[in-house]
Design a protein that fits this description.
Layout: H1 2-7, H2 13-21, E1 36-37, H3 44-52, E2 58-64, H4 72-82, E3 89-95, E4 110-116, H5 123-145, E5 148-152, E6 156-158, E7 170-174, E8 207-215, H6 216-235, H7 244-254, E9 259-261, E10 282-284, H8 289-293
Parallel strand pairs: 1-9, 2-3, 2-5, 3-4, 7-9
Antiparallel strand pairs: 5-8, 6-10, 7-8
Helix pairs in contact: 5-6, 6-7
The structure holds uridine-diphosphate-N-acetylgalactosamine (UD2).
Length: 294
């Protein structure tokens, strides 16, 4: 890398810029040439200037059902500040308790749409049915309203800017567990009976279902396909190991993301953060699973 820099002309702003943007401690590109977004690998000013010319609208779908309404304020308050700051964003909040949504003043370019949704007795069904609800809303509303759409868990908080570097056709977030455990830690669904099954020995990145997205048409294809898998599993009396996350991982293995977000974009607070995670842009809120899900 030093040799590369040495061979570049020493003059000019761009030499300094390039030098600042090189990282040698992490994988910057997937084997299918999709960029992997890490702190220190992009210049947000340049990206913002490009993006502004396009006047895109981004939608964010998130769910707060039953006790998860308690996470709304932390999510929206931090997203208002850190998510695509200065750009147009519609937050679509699905909840069974619209009356419990706190009134919050959002930035002028941001808006909040509250959409009533039914609840399910099992938390796994709330989580898995998100795929179906998102796919239906794309068909009926969002394809007319937004250019890009991201699905995010509600029990998260943002601490640093998440900007237009996340925008691309099909985007997945690499799970933070992939950086703390050996690759084949058996996170994929391997049972051949499940539609989410990935044959043993296959697989590359493991993606977190907490944050994925892309163009509206690609997210439609993804959510429709994943929910079809969930429905077929239900008919066959099987539930994938990590629910819709297993189906998401199967989909993204065979439909490669055009951009990957590093675990800086979803850090699991249960894990010790290695040095390569230079910033924690977004992380999970610690929760008592037994208390919050029942
Ligand atoms: C993982 C995934 C999550 C989902 C889940 C399924 C990550 C970091 N997260 O998180 O996306 O795939 O596994 O096993 O990969 N929800 C409610 N009310 C409930 C339960 C869930 O609103 O009672 C919604 C809420 O938006 C929540 C999401 O569903 O953020 C996922 O549920 P979770 O956060 O409890 O799942 P978790 O932490 O196991």
């Amino acid at each position: 890398m030093d040799k590369l820099l040495h061979n570049l002309p020493k003059e000019g702003h761009w030499h300094l810029l390039l030098k600042r943007l090189l990282r040698t401690d992490v994988l910057l590109m997937s084997p299918w040439l999709a960029p992997i977004m890490w702190e220190g690998t992009f210049n947000r000013d340049i990206l913002n200037a490009q993006y502004r010319q396009k006047n895109f609208v981004v939608g964010v779908a998130t769910f707060a059902v039953k006790k998860y309404v308690r996470f709304i304020e932390g999510f929206l308050g931090s997203a208002n500040k850190f998510f695509l700051s200065g750009h147009r964003v519609n937050f679509y909040l699905f909840t069974d308790h619209p009356e419990k949504v706190p009134s919050m003043k959002l930035a002028p370019e941001k808006s909040l749409v509250i959409i009533p949704v039914q609840n399910y007795s099992r938390w796994q069904d709330i989580s898995m049915n998100r795929m179906d609800i998102i796919s239906n809303h794309i068909r009926t509303h969002w394809r007319y309203e937004v250019d890009y759409l991201y699905s995010m868990d509600i029990d998260v908080q943002m601490f640093e800017h998440i900007g237009v570097e996340i925008i691309d056709t099909l985007v997945g977030t690499i799970s933070s567990w992939q950086y703390t455990k050996p690759r084949d830690s058996n996170s994929y669904e391997r049972r051949p009976e499940s539609r989410a099954a990935i044959p043993s020995g296959e697989g590359d990145f493991y993606y977190a279902a907490s944050f994925y997205g892309g163009s509206v048409s690609e997210v439609y294809k993804l959510t429709t396909a994943c929910f079809k898998g969930v429905t077929e599993d239900r008919a066959n009396g099987i539930e994938a190991k990590w629910h819709e996350e297993s189906h998401l991982n199967k989909y993204l293995l065979y439909h490669k993301p055009t951009r990957l977000l590093s675990p800086e974009y979803y850090w699991d607070e249960e894990l010790i953060r290695p040095r390569i995670i230079r910033v924690k842009r977004l992380s999970s809120v610690r929760k008592d699973l037994k208390e919050v899900r029942f």
